[in-house]
Design a protein that fits this description.
110 residues, alpha+beta, 3-stranded antiparallel β-sheet, two-stranded antiparallel ribbon, elongated
Length: 110
């Protein structure tokens, strides 16, 4: 009985680690396709409630302060504090070329 429980725990751990590796691979490759340095993205957003603009730094595939719904995030505006939907991909800000100089090329090299 104890031996069976041990192998169940090992199996669950292997599956969890495999899922984590696939997920992180997806996040890192998606960030490189966007063409920015690292995985942190920046979007310039406008709040639909207060109509003010702000910059929002975020990590693809992760969220601590918002609810992810595809390309949109349901989050509180940092200026007025009211919750709204924001499309973070539509307002994606390209990094200056000096920051992208150290990033690997986005496409296949010839």
């Amino acid at each position: 009985m104890r031996g069976e429980l041990f192998w169940v725990i090992v199996g669950v751990a292997v599956v969890a680690i495999s899922i984590a590796v696939v997920y992180l691979t997806f996040v890192f490759t998606k960030a490189r396709r966007v063409g920015t340095k690292g995985i942190v993205q920046r979007s310039h957003l406008r709040c639909p409630k207060c109509e003010r603009e702000f910059d929002y730094d975020w990590i693809p595939g992760a969220s601590l302060t918002s609810v992810r719904l595809g390309p949109d995030r349901y989050m509180a505006c940092p200026l007025c504090g009211k919750w709204s939907m924001f499309n973070v991909y539509a307002g994606l800000v390209a990094r200056p070329s000096s920051e992208r100089a150290t990033a690997p090329p986005a496409g296949p090299s010839s």
